[in-house]
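Run folding on both entries below.
>entry_1
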Amino acid sequence: MSEVVSGATPQVGVIMGSRSDWETMSAAAAELDRFGVAHECRVVSAHRTPAWLTEYAESAEKRGLRVIIAGAGGAAHLPGMVASQTLLPVLGVPVQSRTLNGLDSLLSIVQMPGGIPVGTLAIGKAGARNAALLAIRILALQDSQLAEKLQAFVTEQTASVLNEGLAGVEPPLPPTAIDSAEGRKR
């Protein structure tokens, strides 16, 4: 699970409370891979390895990270604890739990005290994927090549949805909507 894409210095840290969270957090890594964003993946437990958590958070910026994606289930203290120990943006992903289906994790991550911000995403794989896309948007603010890849992704995603349709069920799209999907002005 510990990985660095293309031998480059990782820009995004993907961390999780335990190995079992990888099933969810692998969606973030896959999205970062797709965009060619160098990242690292690590298990950093807020409860079982608090000293490692502190070391990870405090050294993240010096090691070249620019965003941290932290996934956790249950009590889900990892994102908040990391955010309290770094100035980097921290994106929290609630991992779906057996007990409360991830609602406990969501509430734990989203209810941070004022002054310790954590950008909280949806529960599960969709949240992990969106955390990666949000990290990519943050990085793209200062990386024009990444911004171009992101724009191409959005354009392709829009066109894919517009072309999906339900043959014989829905009316055809007006030309302005199709033009917009292809990146032309309405």
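>entry_2
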Amino acid sequence: MPLAERLARRRAERDREETEALAAELKARADRAFAVLTHIATHGHDDGSEPCVSPDPAP
């Protein structure tokens, strides 16, 4: 296998690994934001305000 081809494959693999790592980090941040917003919507803010939605929605 020519050197240029090996280098191109290594670069592509490294780029793929970096992309996957960034995607995992982005998903973790999105999951955390969703959890925080869900908690606020269900339980209200820390200032004692009322919840935005009912914990037991009517059917």
